[in-house]
Amino acid sequence: MITVLLIGSEEEVDISNVLIDAIKAINASTLHLTAKSISVQPHNTNQIDFLIVDNMNISNIDTDRGIAVFKQNIPGIDNSYKIPSNFIAVTDSENNDAVSILLKNGMQTVTCGLSQKDSITFSSRDDEDAVVSLQREIKTLNGNAVFPHEIPIKLESVKGEYPVLAAIAVLLIAGNLIEHEITI
Question: Does the pLDDT of residue 179 top 60, yes or no?
Answer without folding.
Answer: yes
